[in-house]
Every structure is written in structure tokens, then in C-alpha cells.
Amino acid sequence: MADRGALKFVGFIFATATLAVMLVAGMVVKGYADGAYTLEASTFDAAR
């Protein structure tokens, strides 16, 4: 059987990674909502 202390440590690592991913996803969604990012392709001068 696994050591409870080690399982708590692994759980803490996974919880920290999950929280980091959720924060980054929230920041990206907020950026899209505020208009900092756009989904449209940017136009460029193809003749150059």
C-alpha cells in the first residue's frame, strides 16, 4: 500500500498544476473578452 504522506504530496503537486492551468485559461478568456486577442486572421500586404 502507498504511503499516505507521499500521496498527499503527489495530490498537492497535481492541485498546484491544476490551479496554474485554470489561472492561465482564465487570463486567456479574459483577454479575449477584453479584446486584447482576436480570432480573425490578421491582414497583411501579400504584394511585398
UniProtKB/TrEMBL annotation:
Keywords of this entry: Membrane, Transmembrane, Transmembrane helix
Presence of keyword Transmembrane helix: yes
Sequence intervals crossing the membrane: 6-29
Protein name: Uncharacterized protein
Source organism of the structure: Bradyrhizobium stylosanthis
